[in-house]
Amino acid sequence: MTVKNKKITKTNAMRMLDKQKRAYTIHEYAWSEDHLDALSVLEKMSQDAGAVYKTIVAVGDKTGVVVGVIPAQNELDLKAFAKVSGNKRIEMLPLKDLEATTGYIRGGCSPVGMKKAFPTYFSHHILDEKSVLVSGGKRGTQIEISPADLIAVAHAKVEKITQEKDE
Q: Which of 2, 82, 119, 131 gives the lowest tally of CB atoms within 10 Å of its CB?
């Protein structure tokens, strides 16, 4: 459902997009603690909205925290992600550290508006999209935005960092 004429509490992500005068649309959906993953979001969003992308926070052995943003149906390729980010090894940030590190909680982690600017990498798939949906910074909220605007605001690089999920 797209929000129209409804007072919405702005998140850090929305404030950052407003500050940089980037156009975006807010989509809200019902969420549950058991279904916070990106594929659940993909199922809830209407087909006419943009492609759903998930934000993954990891830690590299050389760079520290790095952020990957990939299509909901894909998996992060840790070896490729390590290589493009200048690391030998990379591992997922422990979930218990997510909020303290980014300012966001699981199911509401946006690649925009984190506490600190971390090196961010978008999957090369983003270049094929007309619009994308990423977390709006809280559970149950997605931001639809053009890939070019999202990449610019996140100061991100576009790289091949995914592997296809086995069906």
A: 2
Of the candidates 106, 6, 17, 2, the one whose C-alpha atom is nearest the C-alpha of residue 50 is 2
Written as six digits, the tokens of 158 are 């576009």
* Residue among 60, 61, 59, 27 nearest 45 (CA): 27
For residues 141 and 49, the answer to whether their CB atoms sit within 8 Å is: no
CA 27-31-37 angle, 5° bins: 95
49 secondary structure, DSSP code: S
pLDDT in tens, 50-84: 688 999 999 999 999 999 999 988 899 999 999 99
d(CA 13, CA 133): 13
CB 158, CB 121: distance < 8 Å:
yes
List pLDDT tens digits, range 139-152. Answer: 888 899 999 999 99
Whether residue 44 contacts residue 32, with contact meaning beta carbons closer than 8 Å, is answered with no
What's the rounded Cα separation, in Å, for the pair 165 and 4? 35
Question: What's the predicted TM-score (pTM) here?
Answer: 0.85
Single-letter amino acid, residue 153:
V
Longest pairwise C-alpha distance within the chain: 48
Q: Report in angstroms the alpha-carbon separations of 93 from 54, 70, 102, 136.
A: 15, 16, 11, 20
What does the alpha-carbon distance between residue 144 and residue 134 come to, in Å, rounded to a whole number?
7
